[in-house]
Amino acid sequence: LSEFLQCAGTILGTEGQSEFLAHQGTDCWTYHYSEKLMNWQSARKFCQENYTDLVAIQNKREIEYLEKTVPFNRHYYWIGIRKIRNTWTWVGTNKPLAAEAENWGTGEPNNKKSREDCVEIYIKRTRDSGRWNDDACHKRKAALCYTASCQPGSCSGHGECVETINNHTCSCDAGHYGPQCQFVVQCAALETPELGSMVCTHPFGTFSFGSQCAFNCSEGTHLAGMEEAHCGPFGNWSSLEPTCHVIQCEPPTAPDLGSMDCTHPLANFSFTSTCTFSCSEGTELSGEKRTVCGSSGLWSSPPPICQQSDRSFSMIKEGDYNPLFIPVAVIVTAFSGLAFIIWLARRLRKGMVKTTTRGSILVLHSHLIQKKGSLPEPACL
């Protein structure tokens, strides 16, 4: 016996069943061979109907085990390799035969007569025992089968099940680990950015391999960093958590001869900041009294200016005047005009003023001025 445990099995042949040895482990991966000879296609059908498939040689230990346990047959045994589109392929997995896994006999494969597309294994042969030979698929040989220990759920759906002589092993997919690939790599939990939002998907578990998070910022802010992050197979995120920065507006200036008062809900002179303007006494505001910092980084209106104004007009415009002001002004003006008219009438009643120049007389009488003769304009004496 080999260093491994063995268990009883059966040999299916034309005359019924007989005992044989097969390797056993926690899940016994057993070998089976037929006594009946058949071509390669029939041999595979026989294995698939009764076991799993034609044997797939995984490593040298497996070959050594087969050499010890399988009896000599002068026709040798078909195994699960065939040439498909000029490539030697494991038919059970449909994977190409890797160069490091080749175990050809001396001078093989030689493709004799260009029709040798199937593979046999020499068991207990004097020369090249345990090695392979390409041969014509129609030839009749014994079928060498196996029963797999790998089941659909053997590796938790996150790895490839690899048959071994007494058991199976799991070659885990990226981001998974454990004997049955039952564990998933974790990444540090991410937090929602301030003034923003985060939406994540977790195909294998919260903040684990394959998790993907997308970030957004609220109105009036902009994202500093990457919009998405992915949890990788080694427990690292593809990028750092982003931050949301409040959009800034250029600080406005207070008007000359005026003042400015601002409020800042989020940050100084940033989105939603509001500034209110006022002018000192004797000036008036030209422009909007209030401006707001918008999400685009611009103020809703430019800063106003304070202009000098007429006091009377300003008082009337703003309602800061006495209701008696206008009537009194009208009365005073009327009396001044009346006094002037009385004074002028008295002067006219004094009679006429005579001015003699070279015999010509300019007579001023009442409201009538008469000019006689052709004299120059009179002069005042």
From TrEMBL:
It comes from the Eukaryota. Ca(2+) binds at residues 108, 110, 116, 133-134. The keyword Nuclease does not apply. CDD domains: CCP (cd00033), CLECT_selectins_like (cd03592), EGF_CA (cd00054). SMART domains: CCP, CLECT. One of its GO terms (molecular function) is protease binding. One of its GO terms (cellular component) is plasma membrane. The chain crosses the membrane at residues 324-345. Calcium-dependent lectin that mediates cell adhesion by binding to glycoproteins on neighboring cells. Mediates the adherence of lymphocytes to endothelial cells of high endothelial venules in peripheral lymph nodes. Promotes initial tethering and rolling of leukocytes in endothelia. This is L-selectin.
